[in-house]
Amino acid sequence: LKMSFIAVMLLWVGFSYLSSGMDTLGALVLQPSTRAIALLSEWLTHGAALMLLVLLIVALVDVPLQVFLHKSRMKMSHQEMKQEGKESDGNPQMKGRLRQRQRDIAQGNSVQAVPKADFVLMNPTHYAVALRYDDSTMAAPQVVAKGADLLAFKIRDLAKENDIPVLQSPKLARALYAHAELDEDIPTSLYTAVAQVLAYIYRLKAAMRGDGPMPEEAPTPFVPPELDPLSNVLAAQPA
Predict the structure, then answer these.
(1) What is the dihedral of CA 95, 96, 99, 105, to 10 degrees?
(2) pTM, entire model
(3) What is residue 164's predicted lDDT score, i.e. its pLDDT?
């Protein structure tokens, strides 16, 4: 709607300027060519300046308006969160929904950390988990980003854009998504599984640098069944 309004304004100003200058344009044919070109250039310059002035006026009105509307929306969102927090006091279901909403926001923001990851695990399309490990500063690998469905695809695509290995490891991806918190050490029960993948990643990166042969097929690390959400669901189903 805003762009349509701007387009209509520019068309109206342009048409008005053209209409008012018809006599000037008609008189150009009576002028010497050099003089006619100079007058035409001046007329076009004035027209362009008028268009820019219209855009400037629109911007001077629109920018403060957009800032005001954005602050209003942010204020409403903050108030809604506070109200939801008040309503959730003593209500386990409301508290659960609030925590889930906070986790969803955190996961969405975590995508920005994908370029720092060493590798990404997928399941193969429903979940994506990006991990990083620096033995000089970390006691254990950490999940720097994770997401499901469309967010998982976004993590995968961003990893590929930054030449970060993406491996298919459904059970481990599901377990890390369910039990590992962002920017915290992974659960100790998954150390061995992640260590197997890390060893493969190190060999893969060394081979890509020309420091060794390409590793064989990616490992299929063991994941305790109780940590795999899908295994728990299947176990709960009646035979």
Answers:
(1) -120
(2) 0.54
(3) 94
